[in-house]
Design goal:
Structural class of chain B: alpha+beta
CATH architecture of chain A: Orthogonal Bundle
Shape of chain A: globular
Structural class of chain A: alpha+beta
CATH superfamily of chain A: Winged helix-like DNA-binding domain superfamily/Winged helix DNA-binding domain
Largest sheet of chain B: 6 strands, mixed, barrel
Oligomer: heterodimer
Number of domains of chain A: 1
Strand content of chain B: 5-15%
Strand order of the largest sheet of chain A: 1-3-2
Largest interface: A-B, 24 and 28 residues
Chain lengths: 114, 900
């Protein structure tokens, strides 16, 4: 498995965690979420439009986030996503899981945090 | 540097265009959301100093890097600030979402959707229309008190092969006296009656003279007036009558004072005692009910001319009543062998008796339309199945992307639901229109049809059944698919065995072919039956012959000489009219039966009365036999020299000569006729004299089609006058004949009405009108069924070929010739069709007893129609396998196997 594939696979699994974490801070729209993931990961993590919105819609369909259209004077209408109670619970679980996972990576494979 | 600001970018159009090129179908909201995203991306790039082109390129790349096709299309509430969503509204939103998804699917596959809706609509429409008519005509109870307790009685004679004859008045009174069996019974006969009122034009009115208990027995009372006295005498010489609502409105302007006044029936005054309610039609569209005036027991046991209705006593079944009347018939036969030997009584439920041919015919039709509907449903099921099998890959992708299986099932159900609803709407519209058209244009008079209108309850049931079936077929394949799904489908693609799908498909095709085969065979049977009916020889030349009925009433024709003089004068005038080649008159036209009366042959030992030979008796004028071109076999026919003052003469038919004078010459023999008086209408003026046979003529039909020509004796109207005769007149131009009939009548007696003016050919056509109508409908249904079956077989085979492309390619690469592959596909189709054929014949065998009741001289299991139906189906199956077979033989193994 090449280096790039490892990250691709990991990205798939982590998309939910990333999105939930970002909308937990505050309501965010899609571009905002994409930009923050890219910025904060130093460009390591990027999502295509399709995968980002597929994930958003899936999270919404499962009731973990809720989107609503917000319109402000002079600004384009955007859809803002907000985390739901169920989403918060899922996020907490996922954070623990990923924490244990990363610890395991460090212990077993000598992976260090950059 | 003064850079020009770039034009504003329409991001929505940008996304839409891109999505369309990528073949993705995005919801407007998704498009808007992506547009907002790209706008932000572009703005962010510009803010960080990138020029317009670079920023735009970045947005484009973001879009191009995305596989938009995997993005679920989505729907969402349009509200700007969404209210809190309760679980129930969220469910209904899902429903709306699913429905919109379904509609979108059909926008992309309009041919599939249209075909499905048309097939469903046709099926529902035809079924609802026919069922509505069957419901209104056959199933709806008659509008009388406890109608299921009402029966009619018919005389039967097993020796003479008479299945349903009218009842003798004397025997009727004996039957009526079976108090344990019948609560009561009423009887009537049908006199020909002219209604003449002072100032109004004389008309022939349909009349029955009926026992006074009829209305009480039926449980119906007049809308105006008291009617016949309740519990009054069974018959009475006081002349009273009840009239119909139609006659009351059309002739007497709905004047209530007509009750209590007198009207003139055959120039005799009757007091009107009641007006029946609208739509009361018993025994059929009668306008005048005269109260019975004579004692039925004083008539003859040999004369069968009464019709009856009886009410079963409480607790008595039809079968029990039949046993009781049969026992009575046996007793009567023992006591009165001369008149009652071999006669018995049939008890028939009133509704069945009133509907006659229409009951089995409508049931056959209902069966046919249900088969048609089933074929339609199977067809749609096949279409849905094919489609969901074809969509497995698409659905598998969506499942892999996280769509829940439940969601997909819901979507498929929604699609079936939308199709059913659209099909139902089309079907109901069609049914409504069909019922209107059928009622308005029905060429034959079906009892109660005029009261039929689309029965919404029936229609709802039909739509419900269809919807349930469609949903079922939409659901089964989707469940099948969801179960098989799980990652495997994506990778294995078309290679995955679609065995279960193929099996279901084959079952559908076999069922469709079976039903189509049954329908086509049934219509072939009807074609043969109608051909047999039409081919029945009449024994006369009917071309260019116009017929009409005349009845002489009133004091002017009290004397028999006056009756004779009238017909002689009228026929003379008629013969001299321009365009008239020949004219005559008779008591019974071809295919009608004469009076069956006993006679003796002079010079032979007198048989016991019960063994006296019986022949049909007719009274005809000069020129009648000539007008119909009945061939003269021997001797001569009547001339003006045969009068009441000369010796009695008769002409007999060939059947008579053959039966009673085999190997002898009939001409010159003498008969003694037992006929004396035919009611008030006719009389044998030479009753005590022997009649010499002066001629033998060919056999003209004198019984309904299917029964042999009976021996017949023709009297001349001069020696045996009758007041009501059917006029026949031959000429080249029907309009000229009509004019001649009327002008000659005006010159002879302008106060007489002409009745039933009709070409003889048209009368003959009426004999087969009912089966011909049924035949036409069945042919239409059969054609539709075949068309649907062809679509079904074609759809299955082309799908099979597609799904077996790889296998066929392997066969070809292993050395099979293209023609072998084509043959393989074709054989598969024909094997299925043959299996369906066999099943279809089984359906016909099962429906045999019902079919037998609408067929004429054709067995429902006749080889020729079955073979014809089967051959038609096989040819159609072969045609519909042709295209898929050719396509299969053109499979290119290299391309197919490379693509794997």
């Amino acid at each position: 498995m090449s280096e790039r594939t490892a990250i691709t696979e990991a990205k798939k699994g982590s998309a939910e965690l990333l999105i939930l974490a970002l909308v937990e801070e505050q309501d965010r729209h899609g571009y905002d979420i994409a930009r923050l993931i890219e910025d904060r990961s130093g460009g390591t993590l990027t999502f295509t439009l399709a995968s980002l919105y597929t994930s958003l819609y899936r999270l919404e369909a499962r009731g973990w986030i809720r989107g609503r259209w917000i319109e402000r004077p002079g600004v384009r209408r955007r859809r803002y996503y907000r985390i739901t109670e169920a989403g918060r619970r899922l996020l907490a679980t996922q954070r623990q899981d990923w924490g244990r996972f990363l610890t395991a990576l460090r212990e077993v494979a000598g992976v260090t945090f950059a | 540097m003064n850079r020009e600001s770039p034009p504003p970018i329409d991001w929505k159009a940008f996304v839409t265009g891109h999505a369309r090129r990528a073949g993705a179908d995005l919801a407007p909201a998704t498009i808007e959301e992506l547009a907002a995203h790209l706008d932000d991306l572009y703005a962010g790039a510009r803010a960080s100093g990138a020029p317009h082109e670079v920023a735009l390129r970045r947005a484009e790349r973001a879009l191009e890097a995305s596989a938009l096709g995997t993005l679920p299309v989505r729907a969402e509430p349009r509200t700007r600030s969404a209210p809190p969503i309760s679980p129930s509204t969220s469910r209904s939103l899902f429903v709306i979402y699913d429905l919109r998804m379904a509609l979108r699917q059909f926008r992309h596959h309009p041919a599939f959707a249209l075909l499905t809706v048309i097939v469903l609509g046709l099926g529902i429409g035809a079924a609802a229309a026919v069922y509505t008519i069957v419901d209104g005509v056959v199933l709806k109870p008659l509008p009388f008190r406890a109608p299921d307790r009402l029966v009619t009685l018919w005389d039967t004679n097993y020796e003479q092969g008479l299945r349903q004859e009218r009842v003798s008045p004397v025997n009727f009174m004996d039957v009526r006296a079976l108090h344990g069996t019948f609560e009561d019974a009423a009887a009537w006969w049908r006199p020909d009656v002219n209604l003449t009122d002072n100032a109004l034009e004389p008309v022939r009115v349909k009349t029955i003279e009926v026992s006074a208990n009829l209305f009480q027995l039926l449980g119906v009372t007049p809308q105006v007036g008291p009617g016949f006295p309740a519990d009054g005498p069974f018959y009475d010489r006081q002349l009273i009558a009840v009239i119909s609502d139609r006659l009351w409105r059309e002739r007497y302007n709905a004047d209530r004072s007509i009750v209590g006044r007198q009207i003139r029936l055959n120039d005799t005054p009757y007091t009107v005692v009641g007006i029946m309610p609208p739509r009361f039609a018993f025994p059929d569209d009668v306008d005048v009910w005269e109260r019975l005036q004579w004692d039925l027991t004083q008539h003859s046991r040999a004369a069968h001319f009464m019709e009856t209705v009886a009410r079963l006593a409480p607790g008595i079944t039809v079968d029990q009543a039949a046993r009781d009347t049969a026992a009575l018939a046996d007793r009567l036969a023992a006591s009165f062998p001369a008149t009652n030997r071999a006669w018995s009584t049939r008890v028939v439920p009133l509704l069945e008796s009133q509907l006659g041919f229409y009951r089995p015919a409508l049931l056959v039709l209902l069966g046919a339309v249900l088969l048609l509907m089933l074929i339609g449903v199977f067809n749609v099921a096949g279409l849905l199945l094919t489609r969901s099998l074809d969509r497995r890959r698409e659905l598998a992708v969506r499942v892999a992307l996280g769509a829940s299986p439940l969601r997909l099932v819901r979507e498929l159900i929604a699609e079936s639901g939308v199709l059913s609803a659209a099909g139902g709407a089309v079907g109901l519209l069609l049914a409504w229109g069909l019922v209107q058209v059928i009622v308005a244009t029905m060429p034959v008079a079906i009892p109660r049809l005029d009261q039929v209108s689309l029965n919404w309850r029936v229609a709802a049931v039909v739509v419900g059944v269809i919807t349930a079936m469609t949903l079922g077929f939409g659901l089964v394949p989707s469940l099948l698919m969801v179960r098989q799904r799980r990652a495997s489908t994506l990778r294995d693609g078309d290679r995955t065995s679609t065995a279960s799908g193929r099996l279901a498909h084959r079952a559908l095709v076999v069922a469709e072919v079976a039903l189509a085969c049954a329908l086509v065979t049934a219509s072939a049977l009807l074609v043969k039956s109608v051909a047999a009916l039409v081919a029945v020889p009449s024994g006369v030349s009917s071309a260019g012959v116009l017929t009409a009925n005349l009845q002489l009433t009133g004091p002017a024709y009290r004397d028999w000489a006056q009756v004779d003089a009238f017909y002689a004068a009228y026929l003379d005038r008629l013969r001299q009219a321009p365009g008239v080649a020949a004219a005559g008159a008779t008591t019974f036209l071809p295919f009608e039966s004469g009076w069956r009366i006993a006679f003796d042959i002079v010079g032979r030992p007198n048989p016991r009365p019960e063994d006296a030979p019986i022949a049909q008796h007719f009274s005809v004028t000069d020129g009648y036999l000539e007008t119909l071109a009945v061939p003269l076999v021997d001797g001569r026919t009547f001339t003006t020299r045969d009068t009441v003052a000369t010796p009695g003469v008769v002409v007999v038919n060939a059947a008579f000569a053959k039966q009673f004078f085999p190997g002898e010459r009939a001409v010159g023999q003498h008969l003694r006729s037992h006929v004396t008086v035919i009611g008030p209408m006719g009389r044998n003026l030479l009753v005590d004299q022997p009649f010499e046979i002066i001629g033998v003529v060919g056999d003209a039909a004198n019984a309904p089609p299917g029964r042999p020509v009976e021996p017949a004796i023709f009297h001349t109207a001069r020696q045996f006058p009758y007041r009501s005769l059917d006029i026949v007149v031959r000429g080249a131009d029907a309009a000229a004949l009509q004019g001649a009939l009327r002008s000659a009548l005006r010159e002879t007696n302008s106060a007489l009405p002409l009745d039933r003016v009709q070409m003889l050919d048209a009368r003959f056509d009426q004999l087969s009108a009912q089966p011909r109508l049924l035949m036409r409908l069945l042919i239409a249904f059969g054609a539709l069924a075949v068309a649907l079956a062809i679509v079904g077989i074609y759809g299955l085979l082309s799908w099979t070929v597609t799904s077996r492309t790889r296998e066929l390619a392997v066969r070809l690469s292993l050395g099979a010739r293209p023609v072998d592959v084509g043959r393989l596909v074709m054989t598969q189709g024909l094997v299925l069709a043959s299996a369906g054929l066999a099943a279809g014949w089984l359906v016909i065998v099962a429906a045999g007893p019902l079919l037998a009741r609408v067929l004429f001289q054709v067995s429902p299991i006749a080889a020729l129609p079955m073979a014809a139906g089967g051959a038609a189906i096989l040819v159609c199956a072969a045609v519909s396998t042709l295209i898929p077979a050719v396509r299969a033989s053109r499979t290119d193994p290299v391309t197919v196997l490379k693509s794997e």
